[in-house]
């Protein structure tokens, strides 16, 4: 196989960074193709923990080219800070390239993210619970075709003109609609011009690089950010992000055709988590939920918010298998569930009308009528983190894995049993 897409199957934070890092060692190119610094991908090398937000998770391997594709929204201040921090830890980041088409997150995007969330909370009592990084407003401008792009950032005259045009419009919205404080456009120009000077050396055409690498028989990895249930179309809209984290997004956000994708690996957890607001059918509000949160370290990599926790949901996983065309699954965190006497798995939903649903409902209105149907599976015990083959796992853990596989209709080829890069079992 020479190209693999790695996607999140649940609501994010499934351990995509870990899987990418492991696969990146043998890859020639790693591409991020959607989202921005709303993502937080953890890579653990021995005692060193790296929390990556914009840098692709292959960045630790100097021979692996790391691309930020056109579908990513780039906050230049965050990216430069990440590069500086990595430099301090001995990682050069000379292997980074950023597509000239990538849209840039401007200060008004972060401000509008906050103002819009505050407005929604006041108006309806519930907001999305975004990461506050300006992601939605940046993609909005892209769709409206008034965005500022990587190319503009390194061309000061274009940058000045675009900051004036778009900035004036944004200031009207900030002050007249939200009653907020206008952005200082001259100061923003100076700030962003300086970012452009620093980032110019990374600018490239990621589509050409990825295509030529693939044609030359090299290994290309597409690193998904966010996850299927956060997809703007196939997630729990409107409680989603503003991009396409599903496998198809890898093509659109890089500029390569679907026939160049050889395999799609869905990353999940042996249970489910979610950060931010929105429905979560198998959510736990009891001691088991707290235990999973504490033992699994379920606190946001980007915002530090406690993650909501719940049982594994096979309805969601089947949705992810279909929407992404998954060829296999990598399920992390089997170690976290050890010691829980009885594990529950949601096999289907039952509606208030008594109907049994095997597929994830299309609308939140339908989902609100659903409650999970659970199957109980005997729990397993022991320290799994040292196991290196499937047969070494306790028999009850093996049975849990096999049952998940059956319910999802997709082989689980990688099992996570700890955060370290060697703490996996490949079947
Ligand atoms: P991502 O956004 O999908 O890359 O995932 P995050 O990095 O946000 O969150 C996953 C968390 O789980 C990180 O703290 C990882 O170090 C950790 N992790 C990944 N796989 C495993 C595993 O198999 N077991 C345990 N205990 N932790 C894991
Ligand atoms: P990784 O790549 C988990 C969630 C936010 C919020 C919603 C919209 O680390 O898995 P946004 O800032 O994107 O407009 O927020 O999406 N969200 C994530 N949750 N992991 C992520 O990324 C996320 N990126 C966004 O919490 O509910
Ligand atoms: Mg994360």
Keywords:
binds 6-O-phosphoryl inosine monophosphate; 10-stranded mixed sheet; single chain; 3 domains; binds guanosine-5'-diphosphate; alpha/beta; 427 residues; Adenylosuccinate Synthetase, subunit A, domain 2; 20 strands; Adenylosuccinate Synthetase, Chain A, domain 3; binds magnesium ion; 4-stranded mixed sheet; 20% strand; Adenylosuccinate Synthetase, Chain A, domain 1
Number of helices: 13
- CATH topology call of the largest domain: Adenylosuccinate Synthetase, Chain A, domain 1
Structure class: alpha/beta
What is the CATH-assigned architecture of the largest domain? Answer: 3-Layer(aba) Sandwich
Q: Strand-residue fraction?
A: 15-25%
Described by the principal axes of the CA atoms, the overall outline is: globular
Question: Biggest sheet, open or closed, and with what strands and sense?
Answer: 10 strands, mixed
CATH superfamily of the largest domain: Adenylosuccinate Synthetase, subunit A, domain 1
Number of domains: 3
């Amino acid at each position: 196989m020479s190209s693999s897409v790695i996607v999140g199957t649940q609501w994010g934070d499934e351990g995509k960074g870990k899987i990418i890092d492991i696969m990146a060692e043998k890859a020639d190119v790693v591409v991020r193709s959607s989202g921005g610094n709303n993502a937080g991908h953890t890579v653990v090398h021995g005692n060193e923990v790296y929390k990556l937000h914009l840098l692709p998770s292959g960045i630790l391997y100097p021979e692996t080219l790391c691309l930020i594709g056109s579908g990513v929204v780039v906050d230049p201040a965050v990216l430069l800070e990440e590069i500086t921090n990595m430099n301090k830890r001995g990682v050069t980041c000379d292997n980074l390239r950023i597509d000239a088409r990538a849209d840039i997150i401007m200060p008004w995007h972060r401000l509008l993210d906050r103002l819009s969330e505050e407005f929604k909370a006041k108006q309806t009592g519930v907001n999305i619970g975004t990461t506050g990084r300006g992601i939605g407003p940046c993609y909005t401008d892209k769709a409206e075709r008034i965005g500022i792009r990587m190319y503009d950032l390194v061309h000061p005259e274009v940058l000045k003109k675009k900051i004036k045009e778009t900035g004036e419009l944004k200031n009207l919205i900030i002050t007249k609609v939200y009653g907020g404080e206008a952005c200082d456009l001259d100061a923003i120009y100076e700030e962003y011009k300086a970012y452009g000077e620093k980032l110019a050396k990374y600018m490239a055409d990621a589509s050409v690089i990825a295509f030529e690498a693939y044609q030359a028989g090299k290994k290309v990895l597409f690193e998904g950010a966010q996850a299927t249930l956060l997809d703007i179309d196939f997630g729990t809209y409107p409680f989603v992000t503003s991009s396409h984290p599903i496998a198809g997004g890898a093509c659109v956000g890089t500029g390569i055709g679907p026939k160049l994708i050889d395999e799609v690996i869905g990353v999940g957890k042996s249970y489910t988590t979610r950060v931010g607001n929105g429905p979560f059918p198998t959510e736990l509000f009891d001691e088991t939920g707290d235990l999973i949160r504490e033992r699994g370290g379920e606190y946001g990599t980007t915002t530090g918010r406690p993650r909501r926790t719940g049982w594994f949901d096979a309805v969601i996983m089947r949705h992810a298998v279909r929407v992404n065309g998954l060829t296999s699954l990598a399920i992390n965190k089997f170690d976290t569930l050890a010691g829980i006497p009885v594990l529950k798995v949601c096999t289907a939903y039952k509606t208030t009308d008594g109907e049994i649903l095997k597929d994830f409902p299309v609308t939140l209105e339908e989902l609100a009528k659903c409650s999970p149907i659970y199957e109980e599976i005997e729990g397993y015990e022991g320290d799994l983190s040292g196991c290196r083959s499937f047969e070494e796992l306790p028999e009850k853990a093996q049975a849990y894995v096999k049952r998940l596989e059956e319910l999802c209709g997709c082989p689980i080829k990688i099992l996570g049993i700890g955060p370290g890069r060697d703490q996996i079992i490949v079947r």
